[in-house]
Amino acid sequence: MNDSALFCSRELPSYPSYIFVERIIFCTSLVVNSVTIYCILFRSPSYVGNYKYFLLYHVIGSSLLDLQISGFLLPVVLVSYLSAYSLGFLNFIPSSILTVIGFASCGLVIITSVLLFAYRHYQVIPSFHAHQLSKKKKIFGIILLHLFIMTSLPYVGWAHNKQEGYKARIRQANLRVF
């Protein structure tokens, strides 16, 4: 048996300074995002119109992603293995569910960014232009965009579970070596 194996620990490091910095970022982003939502709801001028709600949707989606990364998930990425583990408030949840939550949040930010761009695009082009869609087609497009992200989430969970199986086999092989 290798003597160096006796001194190796299988515990995951906790990085207290990283956690402290991320908690400061979490509190700061909570305050900044709350002020942003307040300004959109109560301080935006009347000519903003319906764009206010698309902007609010985007800010809420971005805030959720920001708060998840800096507080709830707090990922520690292991770049050499393309893997990560969580140090956040939600570290008791299985990693496959955390992966789906993280990808869903990223998908929400992508959806809201596309919606903001599309809304501004339709405001700029004239109403008689060929690219101008009817209200039904716009709603249909928004639903399709959300469905596209939601249907990709089961694949993310499946791929993560498959990786867990591979990691278990590698661990078993490494235990047999020592």
From TrEMBL:
Keyword Membrane tagged: yes
UniProt KW keywords: Membrane, Transmembrane, Transmembrane helix
Regions crossing the membrane: 20-42, 54-77, 97-119, 139-158
Top-level division of the source organism's lineage: Eukaryota
Pfam families per the UniProt record, alphabetical: 7TM_GPCR_Srh (PF10318)
Zinc is among the record's keywords: no
Name of the protein in question: G-protein coupled receptors family 1 profile domain-containing protein
